Amino acid sequence: MATLNHTGVSHTVFYLLGIPGLEDQHMWISIPFFISYVIALLGNSFLIFVILSRHSLHEPMYLFLCMLSGTDIVLSTCTVPQALAIFWFNAGEIFLDRCITQLYFIHSTYISESGILLVMAFDCYIAICYPLRYTTILTNSLIGKIGLSVILRGYGTIFPIIFLLKRLTFCRNNILPHTGCEHMGLARYSCDDIHVNIWYGLFVLMSTVVLDVVLIFISYMLILRAVFHIPSKDAVQKALNTCGSHVCVIILFYGPGFFSVLSGRFGHHILPYIHVLLSNVCILAAPMLNPIVYGIKTKQIRDQVANMLFAKVV
After folding, report:
1. How many distinct structural domains can be found in the chain?
2. pLDDT tens-digit series, residues 171-214
């Protein structure tokens, strides 16, 4: 595959390799990708349907969960179909505009999901620390405004990256060793100064995802302090169960990303395909497992699903 490599020529077409070093295993690798994507689509779509169709689930916690499922669908759809096209048809060719569009939606949706997890932590905090004021604080109007703010934050903070990338001249290698496009992975192929991209990318990371993690941690410190002041053991157990599913989802979402960042920063001896696989796990793990976690650990959802599936039998 020929590549242009002389100054003055800006690439408009790039080639995604998929999993570098494991090209001969792409067909086998595609199997868990495909299964994960199907589970993510079906699980999150069914969860949204259950929540929206059951009036008893029209509560803040479940409405936020509905938002989470929606972002999971978008996040996995931004990445997996492209990866499967590479694995199955060797269709790794991607135009620059499409590449920028893909990374825009991936990064924006990831930040939006991080924001929703923060809002769900706030929901747990209100439910445990101010149970009598729960419904008066989290009104439908406020939930709608919070959801809109989270989406606008995600898509707004990433929007300048489009212009930061469009200004660059891509005169180096046009082969990307990945299954999809991402900001710095693409910017590094530019012959121009990318310090603005680096600093803005760091600013976005610190002001969104890192800030969300810090605020979630503070929320749970306050929750734990309130829980251990509850005299009733049953009430303590109920309070911990309320947040149990959310904690699992937080680990699934931030955990792979944490290890991916560590491997990218300190794991220079790690093979390239490990970095790419970790990056894909960051995108796939949460969308696939979130509906399973909430379906298993949330009694109200289990009951509503059982009623829907077995109503006719009864």
Report:
1. 1
2. 888 899 999 999 998 999 999 999 999 999 999 999 999 999 99
For the segment 251-269, what is each residue's pLDDT rounded down to a tens digit?
A: 989 988 877 766 666 666 7
Q: What is the dihedral of CA 195, 281, 70, 93, to 10 degrees?
A: 60
Q: How does DSSP classify residue 24?
A: G
Report the CATH number that the domain containing residue 254 is assigned in CATH. Answer: 1.20.1070.10
What is the C-alpha separation between 78 and 286, in angstroms, rounded?
Answer: 14
Weakest-pLDDT range from 28-32, 58-62, 206-210, 259-263: 259-263
Question: What's the number of CA atoms in the CB half-sphere (13 Å) around residue 87?
Answer: 20
Structural domain harbouring 28: 13-310
Would residue 250 count as lying in a domain? Answer: yes
Question: Would 98 be classed as within a structural domain?
Answer: yes
Strand order in the sheet with 93-95: 93-95, 13-16, 175-176
Cα end-to-end distance, the chain, whole Å: 62
Q: Please check whether residue 223 is in contact with residue 205, taking contact to mean a CB–CB distance below 8 angstroms.
A: no
Contact 208, 157 (CB under 8 A): yes
Residue 29 falls inside a structural domain: yes
Does residue 22 fall inside a structural domain? yes
What 54-60 contacts at long range (C-beta under 8 Å, 24+ apart), as own/partner pairs, is: 54/304, 56/300, 56/304, 57/300, 57/301, 57/304, 60/123, 60/134, 60/138, 60/143
pTM of the model: 0.91
Non-local (6+) Cβ contacts of 42 within 8 A are none
Tokens encoding 273: 């395909």
